[in-house]
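Dear colleague,

Thank you for sharing your sequence with our group. We've completed the structure prediction you requested, and as agreed, I am returning the results in plain text so they can be pasted directly into your records. Please verify that the sequence below matches your submission; if there's any discrepancy, let me know and we will rerun it promptly.
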Amino acid sequence: MANPASKQKPITADTFLRGLWEENPVFVMLLGLCPALAVTNSAINAIGMGGATTFVLLGSSALVSLLRKLIPKQVRIASYIVIIATFVTIVDYAIHALSLELYNALGAFIQLIVVNCVILGRAESFASKHRLTKSLVNALGVGVGFTFALLCLGSVREILGSGTLFGFPLFGDSYQPWVVMILPPGGFFVTGAWLLLFAWLKERKQRKVTQEKETVHAPG
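Please find the predicted structure tokens below.
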């Protein structure tokens, strides 16, 4: 009888790219919006939160994949949360040791990575069903996609709200910052604008594919 593991699809570029673009956690699946709105008032904060989340994604996906045949189905969610909490504790102490300023800026949202739907969703829907290498590639794609989304939000909010990017001034002393952009309402405004842009790009792509199909099947 064939080994069930041998039936799994091979690792391709799509394994990584789906999390980065087609299944982007923020812009497509609308997951992890709490940190996306709360800590993206600067690009540095966005990179910090994205990096921390990616680390937890990689670590938890690896461990869930390795233990997937040993974890009883009845307690799998509780087990996943314990695994995720372990890596969140590691990254919490690491950020505290490396940069106290970044740690204070991210605040409680580092600990709240434990309840981030992106990480628990990857553990349940992907890592628990695939081998280690494929789980790591997928987790990396999702982590990079999440970081990319946070960076898109953080860069726009910092540029408009402070006139800087990664702390470097862009417009000189005469620039009047849009203070609302570094406040909570700015997160909603910028997120809505990015969602509108990605929805328009998706619709444009679908319209182009439809037109190409109609051209191919057109008579004559």
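Summary note from our side: The chain has a mean pLDDT of 89.

Kind regards,
the structure core
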